[in-house]
Design brief:
The structure holds 2 protein chains of 2 kinds.
Chain A lengths: L2 E4 L5 H9 L7 E4 L2 H4 L4 E4 L4 H10 L3 H6 L4 E4 L1 H6 E4 L1 H5 L8 E6 L10 E5 L9 E5 L4 E5 L5 E6 L2 E7 L2 E4 L10 H10 L4
Chain B lengths: L4 E2 L2 H10 L4 E5 L2 H10 L3 E4 L4 H7 L8 H10 L4 E6 L3 H10 L3 E5 L20 E5 L2 H9 L4 E4 L9 H16 L5 H10 L4 H10 L5 E3 L7 H9 L5 E3 L1 H4 L4 H13 L4 H8 L26
Parallel strand pairs in B: 2-3, 2-9, 3-4, 4-5, 5-6, 6-7, 7-8
Helix pairs in contact in B: 2-4, 2-12, 10-12, 12-13
Classes of the chains: A alpha/beta, B alpha/beta.
Chain lengths: ~200, ~300
């Protein structure tokens, strides 16, 4: 089993570090090209600047393959934006191309600029009773759920911040910036069946 | 109801993690900011004049006009950073109120305090600061900086000082594991940094915050070289909007930063960019002309 971290821009090493607590080093791969993508069974799209990531995956000829792939994908922050089917005003303004894997509408920077970025504790039933550290950085919001296939895993102030649709998982926050590996474990254990 | 905490170390350092492997571009107006965003910049740095012009014109360089910063904030969706003078806590307070995403306490502007830097823990907005050595980087981090960049020599288009600073930091980091407890204590003392922070750095084997390269980077090859030396990303200043085709050069530097080990791609994106800024050779600068000597 090979797990990829999309390595074009953003918090790549942070996800690799978190995965290295759960997997052997040789099971983790940084995905920069199509050649890399073909070797992995599941993928994490990290946080970063979604405009930059979106441009670079097009440049790197990864856009179509990522759009068509059936593999399990977990997106955090910018990754969530890319997984969405529909984008709000800011996404239209920058003409970002989304991958459209999940029936959700998202808006960038929905919680405000960096000085409004925050951390809190989240109640996430699928991960057990212990609260999960929620680190939100210029975080996107999932503003609309567009189909019944989407399951809300957690909310913050009435807004969904963790959603799942089949083998796709989208989070508004950054589990990779905390020491808690439970979300990565959930992704690997529950969503990648062969694991 | 869970408590919501803003401006924590994790939130500030986490912001810097999100711009990693990216390029941050100096811009002086909204139009340039839009070009930077279009080229794939991960953030823009708003300032009154680019370093090359500050150098050419002389005089006191200060924080940019808030009106201009607001215009830039309005047109971009990517993070906006802005510079304040070293030690100028009021400029930093103004930038925080304006809503910039990161403040650069920068030697490019004329220092407001010859002795002290800003106490950056007092702000919810994260700070980036320049450094030439491990000691300088750790001093800034202990004051609350969430990100470090090499100082290099701004506005010259000469990458050699950035190379020097990055290599020195790398060399000092590599020496830490071999040092005895006494030697570490002495290093902490001579560098005026908390021993705890030095030990944390030794354990991590790298700076505990994101470290970009800055100061004199002018070409895709310069960006690639700095990434190969271990930079987490690139700041480009004067070179983009002082060149013939800013959009093309900006895109080329973004691609070079992404594929910094791919020499074939570097050759392709470096082709036909037009004239690179003329620049100034570092070794021709007098001590007074060197911006990197400002703040220690």
């Amino acid at each position: 089993m090979q797990i990829g971290v999309l390595a074009v821009q953003g918090a790549i090493e942070e996800h690799v570090d978190t995965l290295s607590h759960i997997l052997n080093k040789n099971q983790i791969m940084r995905v920069k090209t199509l050649h890399h993508l073909k070797q992995v069974n599941a993928l994490i799209i990290p946080g970063g600047e979604s405009t930059a990531i979106s441009r670079l995956i097009q440049k790197n000829q990864l856009y179509q393959p990522l759009k068509k792939t059936q593999m399990p994908i977990m997106g955090t922050c910018a990754g969530t934006i890319l997984l969405a089917k529909k984008g709000g005003k800011q996404i239209k303004q920058t003409k970002q191309k989304l991958l459209g894997h999940m029936d959700i509408q998202v808006e960038r920077n929905a919680f405000g600029r960096q000085k409004e970025s925050f951390e809190t504790t989240l109640n996430i039933p699928i991960l057990g009773k212990q609260p999960f550290p929620g680190i939100f950085i210029r975080a996107p919001a999932i503003t609309q759920i567009l189909s019944r296939k989407v399951r809300i895993l957690a909310e913050h102030q009435g807004l969904p911040i963790a959603v799942q649709q089949g083998n796709k998982l989208a989070l508004s926050f950054h589990p990779e910036l905390s020491d808690d590996t439970r979300f990565h474990e959930y992704f690997l254990n529950t969503m990648t069946k062969e694991f | 109801m869970a408590i919501k905490k803003r401006g924590t170390k994790r939130v500030k350092r986490g912001f810097a993690s999100m711009v990693k492997h990216g390029v941050i571009m100096d811009v002086v107006n909204a139009e340039q900011a839009k070009i930077a965003e279009k080229a794939g910049a991960v953030a823009v740095m708003a300032l009154e004049k680019v370093p090359a012009d500050i150098r050419a014109e002389g005089g006191v360089a200060r924080m940019a006009d808030p009106k201009k910063i607001k215009e830039i904030l309005k047109v971009t969706t990517i993070p906006v950073m802005a510079k304040c003078r070293i030690g100028h806590l009021a400029e930093a307070q103004i930038l925080e109120v304006l809503g910039v995403d990161m403040i650069d306490e920068s030697e490019v502007l004329t220092p407001a305090d010859e002795k002290d830097h800003i106490n950056k823990t007092n702000y919810h907005t994260p700070f980036v600061c320049g450094a030439r050595s491990l000691g300088e980087a750790l001093r800034r981090i202990s004051e609350g900086a969430a990100m470090i960049r090499t100082k290099g020599e701004p506005g010259t288009g000469d990458v050699s000082e950035a190379v020097k600073h990055m290599k020195l930091i790398n060399k000092e980091l590599a020496a830490l594991p071999r040092m005895s407890e006494d030697e570490l204590e002495e290093k902490a003392n001579t560098n005026r940094v908390p021993l705890e922070l030095l030990l944390e750095t030794r354990k991590k084997g790298r700076l505990p915050v994101v470290n970009f390269a800055a100061g004199g980077i002018a070409t895709p090859a310069d960006a690639s070289m700095m990434m190969q030396l271990g930079a987490d990303g690139i700041f480009v200043g004067s070179c983009i909007f002082k060149s013939d085709n800013p959009l093309k050069r900006a895109k080329a530097i973004v691609e070079a930063t992404n594929h910094y080990t791919d020499a074939k791609l570097l050759a392709r994106v470096s082709s036909g960019l037009g004239d690179t800024m003329k620049g100034i050779q570092n070794s021709s600068l007098t001590k007074e002309q060197q911006m990197q000597k400002r703040g220690d």
